[in-house]
Amino acid sequence: MHRSRLYGVFVDSPRAEADAAVSFWSAALGVTPERPADDEYTVLPGAAGHELAFEVQAVDDAPRYHLDIETDDVAAEVARLTALGAKEEARHDGWTILRAPGGHLLCVVPVQSDRPFFYRHARTFDS
User: Fold this and answer.
1) Measuring CA to CA, which residue among 121, 91, 120, 123 is closest to residue 107?
2) Is the pLDDT of residue 38 over 90?
């Protein structure tokens, strides 16, 4: 058995437009952005409530949205999602990028949340 949950929504913005995207989304959602030094992600705390992360990511690609699913067993969750029809796109630093039926991207990542929070809110699946 393993556990997983929807971790967050990510606004992927071309690098040259990322600052404008951060300004727009933080004003639109009424939150103060937090950008860690030298990071491609800008966190918008509380923008999607307290259970979901909402971040703007600077990318070297086209604008899009993607979801992250956090799990205590990346391999098992990737296997579960590919059995449901997702296709693996890439692997990077312990996480896996999948393309869901319909063409949308999602990342399967190790647990990012506080562990007690994760275990309270994650769903259990057979591995």
Assistant:
1) 91
2) no
